[in-house]
Specification:
Order of helices and strands: HEEHHHHHHHHHHHH
Structural class: mainly alpha
Oligomer: single chain
Radius of gyration: 23 Å
Number of strands: 2
Strand order of the largest sheet: 1-2
Distance between the termini: 44 Å
Shape: flat
Helix content: over 70%
Length: 281
């Protein structure tokens, strides 16, 4: 092996990244900061004065703040149930992993049949006598119920991804630590808090970063449920590029999403960084 061999092996992936990520990124930056006469901030001014942008930013942050912690707690709980090896544990695993095989848009359409004015949920409420005419879950005048519907759909659709990552992490843990804790009389909660979760830190870090970045890109579920009544950042990119035919402002929104994704990833990496010489305490 010569000194140039590692560089030759890295060359295909480097070229692929440059073509599929670097070139579109450079084009997006140029589109966001240039017009026919050169450098300009006009596209950013137009974006920041658009009333939908503030709503989209607020809704996206709200979605992340609500959905990601719920999914993390559910995924850890589901993993612990699988680790307890109940009857038909394999069936539970595959049932919980089913949403991974469903596209975002299909998931949104499924939940639209639930939350629509004449959907399954209102039919159930009317049948049980809990509501006379049902609830307008997806009405523009009711942002709280719209947020609730999108949160429920997102939790159902994407918890399975966090679950699979946490299950893989738990299966890599050496059993010695948990067995030693049991010998010393630790309770189930103490073993979870002081042994399992610290050892799971790398897997939780990956799950948090991936899920938060994917939540920043949430679009199809909210679009199917609410249209533009519940705007999200990626949805605004679509609106500016396709509906309003303005790729420059669409690029500016995409750069905002990119900046938020990078900032969130750095924040998680620093917050969950393994301390030097750290490990289970």
């Amino acid at each position: 092996m010569t000194g140039r061999t590692p560089w030759l092996l890295l060359a295909p992936s480097t070229v692929l990244l440059a073509l599929l990520f670097g070139w579109p990124l450079a084009q997006g930056v140029l589109a966001a900061f240039q017009d026919g006469s050169g450098f300009t901030l006009a596209h950013w001014q137009r974006l920041f004065t658009d009333p939908y942008f503030g709503q989209a930013l607020r809704n996206t942050v709200l979605l992340i703040v609500i959905v990601v912690p719920i999914q993390l707690v559910l995924a850890v709980g589901m993993t612990l149930l699988i680790q307890a090896k109940p009857r038909f544990a394999g069936v539970h695993f595959y049932l919980w992993a089913i949403p991974l095989a469903i596209s975002d848009l299909a998931a949104g359409l499924v939940w639209l049949t639930v939350f629509a004015d004449r959907g399954y949920l209102n039919s159930l409420l009317i049948t049980l006598g809990l509501s006379e005419h049902g609830i307008a879950w997806l009405s523009y005048d009711s942002p709280g119920t719209m947020l609730f519907a999108v949160v429920v759909a997102e939790v159902w659709r994407a918890t399975s991804m966090v679950f699979v990552i946490v299950v893989a992490g738990v299966q890599m843990l050496p059993p010695d630590y948990d067995e030693a804790a049991q010998v010393f009389g630790a309770t189930a909660w103490q073993r979870l808090w002081h042994v399992t979760l610290p050892l799971l830190r790398p897997s939780l870090q990956v799950a948090l970063i991936l899920r938060t970045i994917l939540a920043l890109q949430a679009f199809a579920v909210a679009q199917a449920l609410t249209g533009r009544d519940f705007p999200l950042l990626v949805g605004e990119t679509y609106q500016w590029h396709v509906t309003l035919q303005n790729p420059s402002v669409a690029s500016a929104v995409a750069l905002v999403v990119l900046a938020l994704s990078l900032g969130t990833a750095v924040l998680y990496l620093r917050a969950l960084r393994q301390p030097a010489g750290g490990g289970a305490r």
